[in-house]
Amino acid sequence: MVTVRLASAADADAIGRVQVESWRAAYAGLLPDEAVAGFDVASRRQLWREWLSGPPRPRSATFVVEDAGEVVGFAGIGPSRDPDGGEQAELYTIYLLPSCWGRGVGRALMLRAEEAMRSSGFRTAVLWVLDGNERGERFYRAAGWERDGQTKVDQFQGETITEVRYRKRL
Question: Where are the beta strands (DSSP E) in the chain?
Fold first, then answer.
């Protein structure tokens, strides 16, 4: 049984593990091996402990998805951080354990995140995905998201990366 709920500080360790396992699988071949090998569970857990224990952030939320009582994925939403963001939401992050890919678990999590963005008064949302992450892009397109032509160059794990933006009317 898959359930989606709001995350709490008690979920930080599981979220950190999910994030690193997902990154290692998703970014292998897209980032240099040493960058992928450098993904660190302990630092991710600490980051999530601090984030989930911090003060509430307006119109923002973090969700976890559980399968048989185990946290197998998470998503974070809030106001867009883009300079042209205006009154739109952003799907900050969505990751699943690789064993859950292609089983509908991510779709359930995405639907809950989109519902929360709508409930917070947003009418459109954006997300950023690593250029070349074909699995991720297929997932977003299947959920009704479309590339909007925007790109950005960023730093991730010491590597310069290019991300592409997707947009969806909520």
Answer: 2-6, 61-67, 70-79, 89-96, 124-130, 146-156, 159-169
Residue 24 contacts residue 33 (beta carbons within 8 Å): no
Strand, helix or coil at 32?
coil
- For the chain, list residues with pLDDT below 70: none
Q: Which domains occur in the chain, in start order?
A: 2-126 (3.40.630.30)
CB contact burial 7-19 (16+ within 10 A = b; e otherwise): beeebbbbbbbbb
Helix 12-27 and helix 41-53: axis angle, to 10°? 130
Closest-CA residue to 89 (of 54, 116, 111): 116
Contact of 74 with 67, CB cutoff 8 Å = no
pLDDT digits (tens, 9 = 90+) for 137-167: 999 999 999 999 999 999 887 789 999 999 9
Residues 6 or more apart whose CB falls under 8 angstroms from that of 83 comprise none
**Overall residue count recorded for the chain in this entry:** 170
